[in-house]
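job 3f2a | input accepted
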Amino acid sequence: MSALTLSTSSAATLRADAVVVGVAKGAKGPVVAPGGDGVDKAFGGKLAATLETLGASGAEGEITKLPAPAAGLKAPLVVAVGLGKAPEKKESYEPEALRAAAGAAARALAGSKKAAFALPVEDTDALAAIAEGALLGAYSFTAYRGKEEANGSAKKGGKNGKDTGAPLAEIAVVGAKPRDKEHKAAAERAQVLAAEVHRARDLINTPANDLNPKSFAAQAQAAAKEHGLKVEILDEKALAKGGYGGILGVGTGSTQPPRLVRIGYTHPKAKQTVALVGKGITYDSGGISLKPAGHNETMKSDMSGAAAVFAAVVAAARLGLKANVTGWLALAENMPSGSATRPGDVLTMYSGKTVEVLNTDAEGRLVLGDALTRACEESPDALVDVATLTGAMVLALGSRTFGIMSNDEAFRASLHEVAEEAGEPAWPMPMPSHLRKGMDSTVADIANMGERMGGGLVAGLFLKEFVAEGTTWAHLDIAGPAFNESAPFGYTPKGGTGSAVRTLVGLVERTAAGDLG
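job 3f2a | predicted structure (517 res):
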C-alpha cells in the first residue's frame, strides 16, 4: 500500500513528482482552495485564471494537469482537482468532498513516486478525509497481470518511464502536523482503513478458480494468526454434523465444499459485542436456476459481504477498538450439477426451520440464515449482516447506494448515520409485514422466494426469520455498490470496491464509545 506522511513543509518547497491543489466552483469562475496558496503564488496569483483558460470549472472530481512554472515550485507538475461548489464564508469543505477529490487525484497520479497533497486541512476531520481518500484512490489489482506488466516494463511509457499500472507510491499531506496526537491518530486510522478496504477489494477481484470457500477460509486463518484473532473453521463434515442445511444445500452442487468461518476479536475493556455476518458465495452461477449470459460474468464478487466482514474485524483489531467483534463468513460456491439442490427441494436449516427452495439463485439468504442463527447463540448486543443479496435493491437504489433494513428503527437510523459519515451512500428501507405471506409454503415452514415486486424487502424479511427474538439486527444489501462495472470515480476503482468496510468499522467505533444506537 502507498506510504503516508504528514508534512509541515509548504507545497512550494516540498520535493515531489507532483503537487495536488483543490479548485472549487466560485461565483465568477474557479477559485483555488485553501492549501494551494503557495502554488498560486508561484503562478503569480493567476493559477485560477490559468485553470479556467484550460477549461477547468472546479466540478467534483475534475482533473487538470499543468506544468509548474520555471521558478517557485520544487514539483514539476501541478494537479488541480475539483472540489465542487465553494463553501460559504465561515463554512468548511465537506469531508466526503475532500475524500473524493484526494482519491481522484491519487488515481490520476498512478505510476508516480510521490505527490504532495495541498488540499484544505482545516481540522482533524479534513486531514482524515484527505489521507483516507488518497490512500483509497491509490489502488490497483495486478496479481494476474503478466510478469512483464506486473514489474512495470509493459506499461512504462513517455519520457519519465513511469509504471502507469502501479499506484501512487507516497502521499504527503501538506499542512498536517506530524507531532500532533490527533493528526497522527487520524493518519494511522486512515492507513488501517485503507489497508483493510484494499484487502476486501483484492478478495473480491480474485477469480473464483483461485478463491473458493477453502482458500478464503485459509486467508482468514492467516490473518487471525497475524493479528491475534481467534478463528474457527467448520468444514463440510462439521457443517453436516452441526445441521447447517442452508450452507450445505447451497454448496452441495460444487466440487469446492462450503465453509463457515468464525473470526473474533476481543478487547479486555470491552463492554459490548457486535456480531457481523457476511455472505460469501465465491461464485454464483445461480445453481440449477442458472443465470443467463450477461448476468454471471461478475459473480466472483458475490462474496463481497464476507470480504467486508473479514476486513472490518481485522481493522477493529488493528485499531485496538474497545469492543468485541465476531465475524461470521458463510462461504459456499453455488454451482449446477447432479448433486445440486433442485427447485422444489426442502432444506432443514441450522435453526430447525425448513425451507422450500423455489429458486436456487436465491441462495445468499440460505447461507445467511444458518450463520445468523449461529451468531445469535452468542447473544451479541447487535447483529449486522452484509450481502450482495438482491438485484431488486439495485433497481431501487442504483449502483452506488446500499439499503439498510432492521428490526429496530433507532439502530437502522444509527447505521445510516454511520454510513453517511464514512462516505458510503446508504438508504433506510422498510420491512412491510404484508410481504411475509408471499413466502408461505405448502410443504415447508417458509419458501426462499416471495412476491417479485419489492424483492429486496422480501429477502430482508426472510433473513429476519432466523434472527433470535430480542436481538437487535440490521441487514445491509450492498448488491449495487459492491462491484463497480463502470468507470472509476473519486476513490472508487473499477471492480471490487470494499463497500461497507468503513461503515462496519464506524459501527464498532461507536460501540466502543458506548453509542451503539
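job 3f2a | The longest strand covers residues 273-284.
job 3f2a | closed
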